[in-house]
Amino acid sequence: MDKPFCPQCEREYDPGVKFCQHDGAELIIRSEDTMSGEVFDGRYRVIHKIGEGGMGAVYKAQQISTGKNVAIKVVSKHLTENPATVRRFQREVKLQSKLEHPNIVTVIDFSQTKDGHYFFVMPFVEGKSLRRMILDDGKLSLNDFHDLASQMCDGLEYAHRRGIIHRDIKGDNIAIAQMEHQRVVKILDFGLAKAIQEDGSLKTGTELTQQGRVLGTPAYMSPEQAKGEIDKVGKPSDIYSLGVILYQML
């Protein structure tokens, strides 16, 4: 029987253990990781699965040309059956390519596997999610709260100033990386980003989401998102979701 292992630190555990005792990541079974060893687009070799969400599965991989580790999000096929959805993903890459900030993880590539799966490529972040950190360590001290909250605000404000909103801010989309004795916030997955005007309203010319369709995570949604009022979603929607996270941190 394969031993479960941690996708973050790669420690192995006895059967039955669900989470890594070192970093809190959910353990996975190698035999169930069908993508391991696959080469995507001739450029990225999959190492192992990291996790799975509503949009698809995420894998740790290696960029063959440089040897650098990257994270690859393979989008579920049912989400890319509609050409409009593919256009939305392609637009996301263009939007994210504008973001260069120490607290934001940027999509660096978007391509397709030989069997038709679309995938995103991002720098690999060594660390754990904010949600996992809170579950493992409990509420933050005021000093840690101020430090991490300031970084989250800096990253989000930077994106907003460049006309990009996230639309799915939550604890799982905030990674906490340990760098030289300092915790560094990394905002992940601008997968529902939209171009917005300086005043915060949506640019109707790039609207690719149908009116009334709810996109996001319910527990963190602003009222306008929960109601499906897409035309009212803007910078304040992200700030509302961030407020939920800040409350959970204290």
Beginning-to-end CA distance, first to last residue:
41 Å
User: Structural class of the secondary structure composition?
Assistant: alpha+beta
Beta-strand portion reads 15-25%
Rg over CA atoms? 18 Å
Q: Tell me which CATH architecture of the largest domain applies here.
A: Orthogonal Bundle
Biggest sheet, strands in spatial order?
3-4-5-6-8-7
Q: Name the CATH class of the largest domain.
A: Mainly Alpha
Mean pLDDT: 80
Please indicate the count of domains: 2
- The number of strands is 13
Largest sheet, described in full?
A: 6 strands, antiparallel
Counting DSSP H or I runs of 4 or more residues, the number of helices is 5
Which regions contain 5 or more consecutive residues with pLDDT less than 50?
195-213
What helical percentage do the residues reach? 10-25%
- SSE string: EEEEEEHEEEHHEEEEHH
* Shape estimate: globular
CATH T-level topology of the largest domain? Transferase(Phosphotransferase), domain 1
CATH superfamily of the largest domain: Transferase(Phosphotransferase) domain 1
Structure description:
It contains 5 helices and 13 strands. It has helices spanning 83-96, 130-137, 142-161, 223-226, 235-249; strands at 4-5, 28-29, 39-40, 44-52, 56-63, 69-75, 109-112, 118-123, 127-129, 164-165, 174-179, 182-187, 194-195. It has a 6-stranded antiparallel beta sheet with strand order 3-4-5-6-8-7, covered by helices on one side. The longest helix has 20 residues, at 142-161. Residues 195-213 have low confidence and may be disordered.
Note the topology.
Layout: E1 4-5, E2 28-29, E3 39-40, E4 44-52, E5 56-63, E6 69-75, H1 83-96, E7 109-112, E8 118-123, E9 127-129, H2 130-137, H3 142-161, E10 164-165, E11 174-179, E12 182-187, E13 194-195, H4 223-226, H5 235-249
Antiparallel strand pairs: 1-2, 3-4, 4-5, 5-6, 6-8, 7-8, 9-11, 10-13, 11-12
Helix pairs in contact: 3-5
